[in-house]
Amino acid sequence: MADNEDQIYSLSDDQKRSYQTDGFLIVPNLVSMEYCDKLISDATDFAKDEIHNYLNFHRDIDSFRSLITKERILDIADQLQNARMVPIGSIFFFGKPNNPLENGSLTHQDNYAAKAPSGSYFVVALALDDCDEFNGALTVYPGSHTLGELPYTVTKNFEFDENGKMIKNFPIGNEVQIPDGHSPITLKYFKGSVIFMHSNTIHSASKNINQEGMWRKKIYMHYVKDGDPFWPGWNAKRQIIDRGPRRI
Question: Per-residue pLDDT tens for 179-223?
């Protein structure tokens, strides 16, 4: 993590207002380059030549388990949600250019999967590469979190063989229709940046099809408010992770 990682991270009033207005907040340089490189190395060693999306690296790789319970990340999540946020799952995207087993995501909200009480589910994403429109950075609809949970079209996300190996990946998410008055922006952020996002914020990510070899590695970590119910899921198998006391 960044320097003084044990120090409590207090958000500014401007950061809090930005999140309340837009439904997401980018905190740059929250994770050190060294820690990002460690995560990349560990993910690559685990996957070997099977490059695709992976659920719950935090269960198999110590560095990812440490990340999902990092106090500074939890400090920020707790402040934005005004609650003690509990980790329950994660998904890792290699974002390899033109990878047939990675196909971006549909325009969606996130709580379709966890089915937690509205506003309880929360997503935190760490960028492990610089990202912009050329390698499929996150596209968001600012202010869409105020719309509540919208109707969606149920779609398949993953396909596995009889041994549990992923053999096909569809665009992630259950698609929602965009209400009038909400326009998309494609974000630009850098390695080590962390995105905190309300579960009702509409977003998507294009498949990485750039021809310059720009990867888009990213880990999404999932949380709920302490004590709230959620659906474990047949594939994700979400479960509560011990995180320690709330600090702020």
Answer: 999 999 999 999 999 999 999 999 999 999 998 999 999 999 999
Q: Which of 128, 129, 130, 110 is nearest to 120 (CA)?
A: 110
String of DSSP letters for 42-102: HHHHHHTT--S-EE-GGGT-HHHHHHHT-HHHHHHHHHHHTS-EEEEEEEEE---TT-TT-
CA distances from 239 to 56, 140, 242 (A): 10, 27, 10
- pLDDT surpasses 50 at 1: no
Closest CA to 217 of 131, 121, 128: 128
Q: What is the pLDDT of residues 105-147, one digit of tens each?
A: 999 999 999 999 999 999 999 999 999 999 999 999 999 999 9
Give 151-172 pLDDT, tens digit per residue.
Answer: 999 888 888 888 877 788 788 8
- Give the three-state DSSP class for 10: coil
Sign of CA dihedral 223, 104, 154, 91: negative
What pLDDT, on the 0 to 100 scale, is given for residue 7?
86
Q: Are 98 and 209 in contact (CB under 8 A)?
A: yes
What does the domain layout of the chain look like in residue ranges?
17-225
Q: What's the mean pLDDT in 227-244?
A: 95
Encoded tokens for 61: 């790789």
The residue behind tokens 């750039």 is 210
**Domain 17-225, CATH:** 2.60.120.620
Q: How far apart are CA 192 and CA 32, in angstroms?
A: 6
